[in-house]
Amino acid sequence: MELCRSLALLTGSLGLVSILIALSTDFWFVAKGPRFSFHSGLWPKEFHTEVPADYIRATQSLSILATLWGLVSVIFLITSCIPSLSIRGYGPLVSSTMAFAAAIFAVVAMVVYTSERWNQPQHPQIQTFFSWSFYLGWVSAVLLLCTGSLSLGAYCSGPRPGYDAL
Questions:
Q1: Mean pLDDT across the stretch 33-59?
Q2: Which range among 54-58, 92-96, 160-164 shows the weakest confidence by mean pLDDT?
Q3: What's the per-residue H, E or C state across 94-116?
Q4: Are 142 and 22 in contact, with CB atoms under 8 Å apart?
Q5: What are the φ and ψ backbone dihedral angles of 127, each rounded to 5 degrees?
Q6: How far apart, in whole angstroms, are the C-alpha atoms of residue 72 and residue 75?
Q7: I need a surface site. Which of 78, 111, 138, 165 has the fewest CB within 10 A?
Q8: Residues 67, 16: contact at Cβ < 8 Å?
Q9: pTM exceeding 0.70
Q10: Hey, which residues does 132 pair with through a beta bridge?
Q11: Would strands 127-130 and 29-32 be described as parallel, antiparallel, or unpaired?
């Protein structure tokens, strides 16, 4: 149980850090032309002049929700390690539920962004591709899914609270 909980805490922390880095950086999409290079992220710099597309807003919202649920998952994992703060064996279960919810939000955010960017028209002289922030978003989704699985494993292998525990 301790190994699963420790690994869940590690993957949850890494997933949380990676989604925060992906959210805050501007290297989701890169375009290179004959005389220029351009990169963009989820937070356009000309926000006051141009309203972001709906898929950008959806990706922003879903990624923020994934970050919040991932943070709640990590907090419950931390409190499950401290007996006086834990909810009698249910910390890993709550953490698992929150991590799976965070993973679902992250996957949906990444699928929305990927499908919309993939379907945009291409110019023959401009090469476009996804960059490292985009891939870090996908890594965070996988890490949050691993966190949920490991937390569930910690819950299933842990002692069950019963009448005698009261």
A1: 78
A2: 160-164
A3: HHHHHHHHHHHHHHHHHHHHHHH
A4: no
A5: -95, 125
A6: 5
A7: 165
A8: yes
A9: yes
A10: none
A11: antiparallel
Share of the chain above pLDDT 70, in %: 87
Unique residue bearing structure tokens 């301790």: 2
In degrees and rounded to multiples of 5, residue 50 shows phi and psi of -130, 130
d(CA 68, CA 99): 10
Q: What is the mean pLDDT of residues 72-91?
A: 79
Domains parsed from the chain with CATH numbers: 2-157 (1.20.140.150)
Q: If DSSP states are collapsed to H, E and C, what string results for the chain? A: CHHHHHHHHHHHHHHHHHHHHHHHCCCCEEEECCCCEEEECCCCCCCCCCCCCHHHHHHHHHHHHHHHHHHHHHHHHHHHHCCCCCCCCCHHHHHHHHHHHHHHHHHHHHHHHHHHHHCCCCCCCCEEEECHHHHHHHHHHHHHHHHHHHHHHHHHHCCCCCHHHC
Cα diameter, the chain: 74
